[in-house]
Amino acid sequence: MKLERFATRTVISITPDDSLDRAIGLMERHHIHHLPVVKDRKITGMVSDRDLLLAVGWQLSAARTVPGHSAYLCGPGTVAEIMSRPVITLEPDHSVFDAATVMLTHQVHAIPLVRGKRLVGIVSKHDLLTRYLALMDAEPRLSVLREQVEKHMTVRAHGISPEEPVQAALTIMRDRHVHHVPVTAGDVLLGIISDRDIRRVCGLERIQDEAAQATGKFYLGRSTASEIMTTDLRTVTREATLLDVAHEMTTHAIGCVPVVDGRKLAGILTDTDIVRIVARLDS
């Protein structure tokens, strides 16, 4: 199960001197979440949609220019200012198990593939899940994905009420090292807040605060969970299999699937959970 067999080979990249507007435009145009940063044909960094959300709230420079102060741009302007480095890479001959282990160890969602120093592809968690589904019949070890979610889900995932501030969700993510927080009323599931939602809010508030200060004003952000949560959810029951969850994730491009009993939250499964389960098969 070598990575070169299914990794994305036509890689969209960007340079350190490119604008954040260009990075946002490339991601939106090509429906991608990660851009390798290349200089002199070498990878020097990575920029993700999460980086852009946190840095500028996914706002283009036109929306970050202070009215009456056309020369003042709120927030960073170039990719070099926000990109992550050094970059974790793999070679095309590595396996999907290698990629899963590296993603978990370094807490990354995508890994560039290099041959020598040349960028030849990129693999993401979404790619791994898609490959797991394709190899179900050919790879006996992947039979674990036929097990029911109840055996693997996070039970009673810690949630917050819709009236609580966004900061409460951020605290849970930081303290529990998770990327998704359910929003509940009692045991009833109302929505999900992801780290992307949090980053967008933080990025927007940072830009709005900087713009306010540039004009001698003061900005107070007051977002609650109900204002930013996602309510259009894909859910499964306890009887569903990991295979069912992986299918939901790849079909709908989501990273979290709540497990429910009727309308009540029973647990949560994420793409990281499934990648971790498969990575353990090669240990």
CATH superfamily of the largest domain: CBS-domain
Helix coverage percent: 25-40%
Shape, principal axes of CA atoms: flat
What class do helices, strands and sheet pairing give? alpha+beta
Number of strands: 9
Strand coverage percent: 15-25%
Mean pLDDT: 89
Order of helices and strands: HEEHHEEHEHEEHHHEEH
Q: What is the number of domains?
A: 2
Number of helices: 9
What would you report as the Rg, rounded to the nearest angstrom?
20 Å
Query: Strand order of the main beta sheet, please?
Result: 5-9-8
Describe the biggest sheet? 3 strands, antiparallel
Supply the CATH class of the largest domain. Alpha Beta
Cα end-to-end separation: 16 Å
Describe this structure in words.
By secondary structure, the chain is an alpha+beta fold. It has 2 domains: 3-135, CBS-domain (Roll), CATH 3.10.580; 146-271, Roll (CBS-domain), CATH 3.10.580. Helix content is 34%, strand content 19%. The chain contains 9 helices and 9 strands. The chain has a 3-stranded antiparallel sheet. A hairpin with a 2-residue loop joins β1 (34-39) and β2. α2 packs parallel to α6 and α3 (96-106) packs across α9 (271-280). It is flat. The mean pLDDT is 89.
How would you briefly describe this protein structure?
By secondary structure, the protein is α+β, with helices and mostly antiparallel strands.
